[in-house]
Amino acid sequence: MTSTNAVHVLGIGGSLREGSQSERALRIALDGAAEAGVTTELIAGPELVLPFYDTALADRHERAVRLVEAIRRADGIVVVSPGYHGALSGLVKNALDYVEDLRDDARPYLDGRAVGLAAVAFGWQAAVTTLEQLRTITHALRGWATPLGGSINTAETKFDEAGGASDDKSVRTLRLIGSQVAEFALSRAGHQ
User: Fold this and answer.
1) Cβ distance 76 to 182 under 8 Å?
2) 157 DSSP β-pair partners
3) What's the start-to-end Cα distance of the chain, in Å?
4) Is the pTM of this model over 0.85?
């Protein structure tokens, strides 16, 4: 829980392409979290271009420091990755590797935080396997994966610049994922 009364949800994901389908999906999920009454923050695309994570290096790039501090402050997290060749993107995986820098915190890794997950890929196979990998990583980092996760096939669903998509079900799913993260974080905040 953050030191202020505001409950905060961080979104991580997207791709290097400006306005990528996965970043648009992430924004929809964060909208769902905001509607549930939390503040949100987005770290996506070029902000995730970080040196390969190396535990042996003490110095961190300024973007890596920003990411780690944002994760440290977050009461909940939403991660959306594109699916590349049946797996999450290297960009998102490397960003999640930086969670290791929280290992010695009072709240290590993603401990005590709900993590909403979605995978966006051109085809069902990559979308489903990427979501499965995101869940496995979340559990390894001690996070609480939300009951609902999203596998979105962009061969069937296209996200638009206005914050919507060609498929209302995908929008509802993403908003519900964000809402579940927010509700978990708000519930924990009320019981601290």
Assistant:
1) yes
2) none
3) 8
4) yes
Apex 164 CA angle, 130 and 17, nearest 5:
55
144 backbone dihedrals φ, ψ, rounded to 5°: -100, 100
Q: How confident is the prediction along the chain (192 residues), in pLDDT tens digits per residue? A: 444 469 999 999 999 998 899 999 999 999 999 999 999 999 999 999 999 999 999 999 999 999 999 999 999 999 999 999 999 999 999 999 999 999 999 999 999 999 999 999 999 999 999 999 999 999 999 999 999 999 999 999 999 999 999 999 999 999 999 999 999 999 998 854
DSSP string across 117-182: EEEEESSHHHHHHHHHHHHHHHHHTT-EE-S--EEEETTT--B-TTS-BS-HHHHHHHHHHHHHHH
- What residues does 118 pair with on adjacent strands? 80, 150
State whether the Cα torsion 61-19-92-149 is positive or negative.
positive
What is the per-residue DSSP string for 34-88?
Answer: HHTT-EEEEEEGGGG--PPP-TT-----HHHHHHHHHHHH-SEEEEEEEEETTEE
